[in-house]
Amino acid sequence: MSSHLERVVGIGCFIIALIFFFMSFELAFIQDGNASMGPGFFPRIIAGIFVILSAIYVFQLFKQKLEKRKQPIDRIIILKQITLVISLCLCIVLSNIIGMLFSIGLFLLFTLAIVQRIDWKISIGLSVLMVAIMYVLFEIWLGISLPKGTI
Questions:
Q1: Which range, of 6-10, 48-52, 113-117, 133-137, averages the lowest pLDDT?
Q2: Which of 51, 69, 138, 148 has the fewest CB atoms in 10 Å of its CB?
Q3: With contact defined as beta carbons under 8 Å apart, do 55 and 79 qualify?
């Protein structure tokens, strides 16, 4: 990727991180009644880390000199990245239809088995394990109900 394009992507990530960080202030950081973590705790922490990391990345990019030679673009990597973005968008849309946990499980399975070409047995096992961890973390431990879908 050329330095100019990397800078544009870095600035875009920084702006997105800032937007999510400021949006997280709409959620309570701490619950009033029992002084435990509120629904805005993790989004604010993760968005804050994303802001810091993307700012460091942008700073490093601007510190470097622009490359005079362009490196050849690997079409397979670009195709994989486009496939991941499209499947992630599909995952978001499907989460309202078939439920978030099932949608994320399918996304993980697709990403591991098709895009990364990991063995099907390992891909299925990791997908089921991650969905189970998400269920325990959000539904049981934090008591946050994830979208169940309309089906």
A1: 6-10
A2: 69
A3: no
Q: What mean pLDDT is predicted for residues 49-75?
A: 78
CA-closest candidate to residue 93, choices 103, 80, 105, 82: 103
Retrieve residue 87's tokens: 């499947």
Q: Which region holds residue 28: left if phi is over 0, alpha if psi is between -120 and 50, else beta?
A: beta
Residues 3/66, Cβ–Cβ less than 8 Å:
yes
Q: How far is CA 31 from CA 36, 111, 115, in A?
A: 6, 36, 40
What does the DSSP 8-state code read for residue 33?
T
CA atoms within 13 A on the CB side of 43: 17
* Structure tokens given for 107: 């996304």
The C-alpha atoms of residue 87 and residue 99 are separated, in whole angstroms, by 15
- pLDDT band for position 72 (cuts 50, 70, 90): low
Decide: residue 79, CB within 10 A, 0-12 exposed, 13-18 middle, 19+ buried: exposed
Global confidence as pTM: 0.58
